[in-house]
Design a protein that fits this description.
Keywords: Kinase, Transferase. The protein is an alpha/beta fold. The chain has two domains: 140 residues, Glycerate kinase, domain 1 (Rossmann fold), CATH 3.40.50; 222 residues, Glycerate kinase, domain 2, CATH 3.90.1510. It has 15 helices and 13 strands.
Length: 387
């Protein structure tokens, strides 16, 4: 049964994140659009794929009209590869994982102590070369715990051991740090607004810091975590001698522990401002204008769970939609939020693919067709005229 043409007055805004391990945010929006148009061919659908600063951030910017730019960078283990970023009107959107992400490690191999963020610094430098004067640095999915030292080195900083030689790459090498010299930093950084876009608010060190919380995801065992945390403490101590109180303040600030301490380097040395990634991306992508046109907002991600509530994209979209008085529903692969937590999100409804296909493996494998069917169902239930 199709919705009558009177549903054409509706204007649906699809602002979904990726379904991790299955579909990109662009693909999710495409499948939902197809399903909606099968049930309600006259409905206007605007797709604005979103991200929270991690994987998919550049893709979201490109879908919003940014231009794709590419440059050669140094990967986390030193191998060269091509990385992309997005540029429009002097604003660059950089996804750290493009240069220094886990996906650039050989299968099954981790390098918790030696992986470097040098390539992320090369991405920043390329954006400056392209004329960017505002840079959004999205962090997430990194393979590194080097406190952003590699990134800073690519931008002109020097980190030396007691003999005056450069310290080895990676967080492990920071234990040998004696001198931090920022006199050679790219001068263009002083005239550039840098926004650190992240969905985590961890400090640099300690039990809630970069090494302790995220090191194990990067292959760090207990000994590695202890060694990396001590190295980051030493790193912050050396920077405090050079930069003064702002280095200590940055180490304790929310977001300092993001991406193995890249947040700390950005805050303490580059003068970045930390903001929740989804807030930054919604602003950069032009979400506010699209929201004004919408009569219904659809958001979502692969798993709607407790992590969603900690600054993930669907929570940010839902909050913005509620503030604007727009109804908002979510589409997800699986729903893992208890009823009370779900009610607190303000969502007007949730459509989980597991409602259609209970087998999680088959759900992931057939996410595209299941999203089309979900889009049809959503259109019938949410876009049909009253009466």
């Amino acid at each position: 049964m199709q919705v009558p043409d009177t549903a054409a007055a509706a204007n649906v805004l699809i602002a979904t994140d990726k379904f991790k391990g299955s579909l990109t945010a662009v693909e999710v929006a495409g499948h939902l659009t197809e399903g909606i148009h099968r049930a309600a061919p006259g409905v206007a659908v605007e797709a604005l794929p979103v991200a929270d600063g991690g994987d998919g951030t550049v893709a979201a910017a490109l879908a919003a009209g940014f231009t794709r730019r590419e440059t050669g960078v140094t990967g986390p283990l030193g191998a060269r590869h091509t990385a992309a970023y997005a540029l429009r009107d002097g604003v660059a959107v950089i996804e750290m994982a493009e240069a220094s992400g886990l996906r650039h490690l050989p299968a099954g191999r981790f390098a918790a102590r030696t992986a470097t963020t040098f390539g992320t610094g090369e991405l920043l430098r390329a954006a400056l070369d392209d004329g960017a004067r505002e840079i959004v640095l999205g962090v997430g999915g990194s393979a590194t715990t080097d406190g952003g030292a590699g990134m800073l080195a690519a931008l002109g900083a020097r980190f030396l051991d007691p003999s005056g030689a450069p310290v080895p790459p990676g967080g492990g090498g920071l234990r040998e740090l004696a001198v931090a010299d920022f006199s050679g930093l790219d001068p263009r950084l002083a005239d550039t607004e840098l926004l650190l876009a992240s969905d985590v608010d961890n400090p640099l060190t300690g039990p809630h810091g970069a090494a302790a919380v995220y090191g194990p995801q990067k292959g760090a065992g207990e000994d590695d975590v202890r060694a990396l945390d001590l190295a980051l403490v030493h790193y912050a101590t050396v920077l405090h001698r050079v930069l003064g109180a702002r280095a200590a303040e940055a180490a304790a600030a929310p977001g300092a522990g993001a991406a193995g301490g890249v947040g700390y380097a950005a805050l303490a040395v580059l003068g970045a401002r930390f903001r929740p990634g989804i807030e930054v991306l919604l602003e950069v992508l032009g979400f506010e204008a699209a929201l004004r046109r919408a009569t219904l907002v659809i958001t979502g991600e692969g798993s709607l769970d407790e992590q969603t509530l900690r600054g993930k994209a669907p929570a940010g979209v839902a909050a913005a939609a509620r503030a604007a008085g727009r109804p908002v529903v979510a589409v997800c692969g699986r729903l893992a939020l208890p009823a009370a937590a779900l009610a607190a999100t303000g969502l007007d409804g949730v459509y989980a693919l597991t409602d259609v296909e209970p087998d999680p493996a088959r759900c992931i494998e057939n996410a595209g067709p299941l999203l089309v069917r979900t889009g049809e169902r959503l259109a019938r239930e949410r876009l049909a005229p009253a009466g």
